[in-house]
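User: Sequence in, structure out. Go.
Assistant: Echoing your sequence, followed by the structure tokens.
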Amino acid sequence: MSKKTAEHHRSAAEHHEHAARHHREAAKHHESGSHEKAAHHAVLAQGHHEHAAHHTAEAAKAHVEHHGSSAATA
């Protein structure tokens, strides 16, 4: 696996972790009635999800290009 593919995997994981933290913050603010802050963290979480999805797709694409379409079904 190339360094670039490994970096896509790492980046996807990091963005998922950031999204999870923002979701926890959003829940905390929502429970305390700070709905504006909750919404802010929810939007940040969504951005991290989108970045994670991009890196996930790039890593999967690299696997298919390197190993063929059988990598997608493994």
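User: And one key feature?
Assistant: The mean pLDDT is 92.
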